[in-house]
Input
Amino acid sequence: MRLLVTRPQPDAERTAAALRRRGHGVVTAPLLRIEPLSDAAFDDRHWAAILITSANAAAAIAVHERRRSLLGVPVFAVGDRSAAAMRAAGFVEIVSAGGAAVDLVRLVVERAKAKAALLYLAGEHRAGDLAGDLRARGFTVQTAIVYRAVAAATLPQDAMDALASGLDGVLHFSRRSAEAYVGGARAADLLPRALEPAQFCLSEQIAAPLRRAGAATVRVARRPNEAALVELVCAPAN
Output
């Protein structure tokens, strides 16, 4: 198949490489740009653990001015990719929930002490309410915004060229990038063409703006991770 990957770099190229190994042709056209906030504020206290739901947050804390003060704090990561990114940033004690935010909540409840103080390193836009879910279970959670994802105002030229020459599928890894895809295609008067290929989504929440825009073929991964989405692309359509 000929596919378009819309996630930010360097993740887009990693996904593209995985798909190319399966024999697919891939065009990368990121619709979000990740900006770390190296001066993001958070309290100076004894944190029982750090929470992380994205490798982007790990990359951001790696360049944060107070990174060293956090290096000894245990980390609960949503998945293996974000856990590896925290390890690369210099953190040592890391446990991966191996799944979605609900798995991370379960892990924290099982492993952390009751009423522990937790520091959540997050992006400016978040799909769920991890901090709220954990506060409801008695934990103290501070959310530190350590990066932002800036959406493209228009479709990148690579995406428009790929749509013009024909695509079999488009991969979406976040709701904001899916919204940017729809909005950019509409602004370029390309929305019907942009919705013709199969839309492969990491979750139902990500799929929602594509369904609402009129996409006929929307497929959702069984688990919200890259490996599951790649398997979905490579699996026969029902």
